[in-house]
Write a structure and sequence with these properties.
By secondary structure, the chain is of the alpha+beta class. Helices cover about 25% and strands about 20% of the residues. Helix 1 packs parallel to helix 7, helix 3 packs across helix 7 and helix 5 crosses helix 7. The chain binds a DNA duplex (16 and 16 nucleotides) through helix 5.
DNA sequence: ACGAGAACCTGTTTGC
DNA sequence: TGCAAACAGGTTCTCG
């Protein structure tokens, strides 16, 4: 579910309800997600006031008033669901953590596949945290420039698709937005990363920024039952040009799928890639 | 050192 | 219709 735009959407939803609120109760309903949860998590969070809700790449950073930060990754299927406590349903089988605030709101972390990760770390230690230390630049920051990406792609033998999926190259892109950005830039996903270093980054970097910005504005992409913290659906999935559109016309070619084959699908390092071979070279 | 593939886990969709 | 296989937004680990 969650790539940068979805996590940013969740961050904004959480910030509204959590910033300045005290967490009066934490219920931990199982001991592990991808890894064991931090020892004594509920007791270490109960009574704390939330200072800030930030984001780094696909990680949510919930800053507490004692200087600790709750680090949350939603994995593939993680969700944060917000409801008033008096209207909250009983916890379901995949509701792993429940947080109640002093003004009567409940935040439930739900994650059926349990690829999510949660840690509680000192704010000072964040930059060197094992999950964050190697992350590449934030794609929406100004410092993420064509030159910056070019340097990171130079000399790499893997495909541009795999390189952009690698969070050390640039942080926050996932399978959907890599496909969309490569389409918008007119770059073939099969091209070597090294061959994109240089002038193709002049198109690729603005395309990445544009796709992410538009997706955030739309509240992210909703697949299956993914909803924002508010319960609303994101609607960027309707704007996809190529992702999930095998055999259909891409958003910019007038070509008839019956004659040209339309959007093509291929598998790269085990993941589906969607692209338009007429537009992407 | 780097890159491809497997593994982690559950739910939903697809195909025979 | 029913069941099994394929597939899904991510990350880490292993192996060549």
């Amino acid at each position: 579910m969650p790539e940068l735009p979805e996590v940013e959407t969740v961050r904004r939803g959480l910030a509204v309800r959590l910033e300045g609120r005290r967490i009066v109760r934490v219920e931990q309903r199982r001991g592990d997600l991808r890894w064991p949860l931090p020892v004594g998590l509920p007791a270490r969070v109960e009574g704390r006031t939330v200072r800030s809700v930030g984001r780094r790449a696909k990680y949510l950073l919930i800053g507490l008033d004692d200087g600790m930060v709750l680090l949350v990754h939603l994995g593939m299927s993680g969700r944060m669901v917000l409801t008033p406590i008096d209207r909250a349903a009983p916890p379901g089988p995949h509701d792993h953590l429940v947080f109640d605030t002093d003004d009567g709101w409940r935040i439930v972390f739900n994650d059926p596949r349990r690829f999510g990760m949660i840690d509680l770390v000192s704010g000072n230690a964040l930059p060197t945290h094992r999950l964050l230390a190697a992350l590449g630049p934030e794609p929406l920051e100004e410092s993420f420039s064509p030159d910056c990406l070019s340097d990171r792609l130079a000399g790499r033998q893997t495909s541009i698709k795999a390189a952009l999926l690698d969070q050390r190259t640039v942080a926050g892109l996932g399978n959907i937005y890599v496909c969309e950005a490569l389409f918008e830039a007119g770059v073939s996903p099969s091209r070597s990363a090294a061959s994109v270093a240089g002038k193709r980054c002049l198109r690729l970097v603005p395309a990445i920024k544009d796709v992410l910005t538009r997706a955030i504005a739309a509240g992210g992409s909703s697949l299956r039952d993914y909803v924002q913290t508010t319960g609303e659906l994101g609607y960027f999935q309707h704007a996809w040009a190529v992702y999930g559109r095998e055999g259909q016309a891409c958003r910019h070619c007038d070509c008839e799928p019956a004659r040209t084959g339309g959007v093509q699908r291929l598998v790269q390092s085990g993941r589906s890639t969607f692209f338009c071979p007429r537009r992407q070279r």
